[in-house]
Write a structure and sequence with these properties.
The structure holds two protein chains of two kinds.
Chain A: H1 3-11, H2 39-64, H3 79-86, E1 94-97, H4 102-107, H5 112-119, E2 143-146, H6 153-166, E3 173-178, H7 185-196, E4 201-207, E5 210-211, E6 214-215, H8 216-219, E7 235-240, H9 244-261, E8 265-270, H10 288-295, H11 299-309, H12 315-338
Parallel strand pairs in A: 1-2, 1-3, 3-4, 4-8, 7-8
Antiparallel strand pairs in A: 5-6
Helix pairs in contact in A: 2-3, 2-11, 2-12, 3-9, 5-12, 6-7
Chain B: E1 2-5, H1 6-20, E2 24-28, H2 44-48, E3 53-55, H3 60-72, E4 76-80, H4 91-98, H5 101-104, E5 114-119, H6 134-138, E6 144-146, H7 151-163, E7 168-173, E8 180-183, E9 197-200, E10 205-209, H8 213-226, E11 231-235, E12 238-240, H9 244-254, E13 257-260, H10 269-281, E14 290-292, H11 303-309, H12 313-323
Parallel strand pairs in B: 2-3, 2-4, 4-5, 5-7, 6-7, 10-11, 10-13, 13-14
Antiparallel strand pairs in B: 1-8, 6-12, 9-11
The chains are: A alpha/beta, B alpha/beta.
Chain lengths: 356, 326
């Protein structure tokens, strides 16, 4: 971590000023001098971001073909937040998130095969076809869902962090949620308890500027989410959620605080979703021009530029990643297609752990 | 056996299970330093310390959800609601998280948690603090719902609930905390969930009653005995899963059924039991099933109106006579 980052950490005990307008994206980007990760790590981060982008594009296609049912919330545009944050964790750390979770599930290590099969409602899915797009779980990989009620995962994550402290481990819990969840009582109740009881939980608000079709301006009186942490004396930072390394480094600082001091952190990651809230959203509440303005700072493009400028990768490396990812995504569709439907007896299993 | 109050029987169950399993902890409003709003948790902070017995802010949704998350990570939380009236704020976490987690994760995450506290009618606290809401929770697959009616049942059932791997809604009756009876002191004494108890044997009519309605039904049975009507009183003890077999077996014997409950009649547990009896014992019934419920109004404050709102012995006696055509 650079000196600049440490200094930033101290300054940001209470959130600094952040852009508040939808049309005012952050201007800063990772400079080559700030890249301190080794090449293998950087390439893995890029691979995950590209994989998630292509995976989600394939989901949109499969959804249009009627292969995926129900609600399907895509992560395109937000890849840097999930990948950057989860790359700062240990394997035994926990992740809980909302219903826009395919990308984070893949970043935590769940195979695209298992995620795609879950979306297809197949027995080979991560929840054996019983959860679907919004309820991806993997106990072995410490991915604790996929939750469908806005903000519902925030008290749960607080409880997981409570358990880590109770069990005297140094495991950290990462909790993702959208900015609309910040208006829920669950957010405020959780942050209060997390600081009161000094719980090792990192709350990451993915501020993509819209709660379904309602813009931040129309829904939130104080639009600086990071600043809300001061109500609970929680350390907070505003992060450029389009910059994967800035995201990773901010979470590294929060992880250190959680692991070593058992303290929570609130991060506001400003980001943007390119697709609708879900696949059924026509997107009439924003302009094409607004979307294009954000796409100029596309997280994958920004990262590729930074890596190229820094001489970490060349065009060949990128082509190789794209080719491998294409294969992985095609394989996931094949796996999902070939996976059997859940047996009809599965309707009645897993209602109770101890059926009486 | 020792004679103790329902309150002390519950306290003993909590103490024994906290001692037995270090992954059990107790959390809620005023459970620790204040010794419990109803003193059910008296002395537990002193015995087990602040790590295991935890006072919360007044933040029901928050600490209910925290409990479910802690259960996902391997702990066995006991979450006390000062009263079940306040659990209404926590229903999202109870219903959408606790009840469904095992199913929607394809069997990966069991939720061994107990949500407990007093429920049902209380003394002159009006509409928001005096109501029976067990039918809400009993509606949802994934939850178990328990309502004890004696100190011994309270101890044995609470111990089973804490040891159970599923979320259990454990509703105590505020008016019954002071009720005294014999309670086994054996630490291994438990009562299995999902098993009804025949509180009184009889041959002429079956009264199905739970929680506060059990002592009321037993008094009614005594009075009816004097008039030559022998009543069997069945206490399901666990509302979900419901031991309908025991109820149906009794109705097949007596051919008459009265269901007593404190809750509102519409879409109540009594309505469910009545439907089950009709489906499973229609040909054995000599009269339509009779329900005696709390009246269909919010609970009033005035003492005389409050008394009218809750079923009493006289109403049960009249109901049994009605189904007996006497």
């Amino acid at each position: 971590m650079s000196n600049q980052s440490s200094e930033q950490s101290d300054q940001s005990k209470h959130a600094s000023d952040s852009p508040v307008s939808v049309l005012d994206p952050p201007k800063t980007s990772t400079q080559s001098s700030e890249i301190t990760e080794d090449r293998e790590t950087l390439i893995e981060i890029l691979r995950q971001m590209v994989l998630i982008r292509r995976f989600e594009e394939k989901c949109a296609e499969s959804y249009s073909l009627g292969k995926i049912g129900g609600f399907c919330h895509l992560y395109i545009g937000q890849e840097a937040v999930g990948v950057g944050a989860i790359s700062a964790l240990r394997e035994d750390d926990y992740v809980l998130t909302s219903y826009r979770e395919h990308g984070q599930a893949i970043a935590k290590g769940i195979s695209p095969d298992a995620v795609m099969a879950e979306l297809y409602g197949k027995a080979g899915g991560s929840s054996r076809g019983k959860g679907g797009s919004m309820h991806i779980f993997d106990k072995e990989l410490n991915f604790l869902g996929g939750h469908g009620i806005v903000g519902g995962q925030i008290p749960l994550a607080t409880g997981v962090a409570f358990a880590s402290k109770y069990q005297e481990t140094d495991r950290v819990t990462l909790c993702f949620f959208g900015e609309a969840a910040v208006n829920q009582g669950a957010f405020h109740e959780s942050l209060n308890m997390a600081q009161l009881w000094k719980l090792p939980c990192i709350y990451i608000c993915e501020n993509n500027m819209y709660g379904m079709g309602t813009s931040l301006e129309r829904a939130m009186s104080l639009q600086n989410v990071a600043q809300k942490a001061c109500a609970y004396e929680i350390a907070s930072e505003f992060v450029d959620g389009m910059d994967v390394l800035k995201m990773r480094q901010a979470v590294e600082r929060a992880v250190k605080r959680a692991r070593e001091e058992s303290l929570p952190t609130l991060l506001e990651a400003r980001t943007y979703r390119y697709m609708g809230h879900s696949m059924s959203d026509p997107g009439n509440y924003r302009t094409r021009a607004e979307i294009e303005k954000y796409q100029e700072r596309d997280p994958i493009k920004l990262f590729v530029d930074a890596l190229k400028t820094n001489g970490v990768i060349g065009d060949d490396d990128l082509a190789q990643i794209e080719a491998q990812v294409k294969k992985d995504v095609e394989q996931s569709v094949r796996f999902a297609e070939e996976s059997p439907l859940p047996d009809e007896s599965e309707l009645y299993t897993n209602v109770y752990a101890n059926p009486l | 056996m020792a004679v103790m109050t329902m309150r002390d029987a519950l306290n003993l169950a909590l103490a024994e299970e906290l001692a037995r399993d270090p992954s059990v902890f107790l959390m809620g409003e005023e459970v620790a330093e204040y010794q419990g709003a109803y003193k059910v948790t008296r002395g537990l902070l002193e015995k087990f310390g602040p790590k295991r017995v935890i006072d919360t802010p007044i933040t029901e949704l928050g600490f209910a959800g925290l409990g479910v998350g802690a259960a996902m990570a391997g702990l066995r939380p006991i979450i006390e609601f000062m009263t079940f009236n306040f659990s209404i704020l926590a229903t999202d976490q109870i219903i959408n998280s606790a009840a469904k987690m095992l199913y929607m994760s394809g069997g990966q995450f069991k939720i061994p948690i107990v949500f407990r506290g007093p429920g049902g009618s209380a003394y002159q606290v009006s509409s928001q603090h005096s109501q029976a809401i067990e039918s809400w929770y009993a509606y949802f697959p994934g939850l178990k719902v328990v309502m004890p009616s004696t100190p011994a049942d309270a101890k044995g059932l609470l111990k089973s609930a804490i040891r159970d791997d599923d979320p259990v809604i454990f509703i105590e009756q505020e008016r019954m905390y002071g009720m005294k009876d014999e309670v086994p002191e054996d630490e291994d004494f438990t009562i299995p969930l999902g098993v009804a108890d025949v509180k009184r044997e009889g041959t002429d009519a079956t009264i199905v009653a739970r929680s506060l309605m059990v002592p009321t039904a037993l008094k009614a049975a005594e009075e009816l005995e004097k008039e030559g009507i022998s009543c069997e009183v069945i206490d399901p003890r666990t509302i979900r899963p419901l031991d309908i077999e025991t109820i149906v077996a009794s109705v097949r014997k007596t051919n008459r059924a009265v269901i007593a409950e404190e809750s509102h009649p519409f879409a109540s547990v009594g309505a469910e039991i009545s439907a089950e009896i009709m489906e499973q014992a229609f040909d054995f019934l000599d009269a339509p099933v009779k329900r005696v419920s709390g009246v269909d109004v919010p609970m009033p404050y005035a003492k005389n109106l409050e008394q009218l709102a809750i079923p009493d012995v006289a109403q049960l006696v009249a109901a049994v006579k009605e189904v007996s055509y006497k």
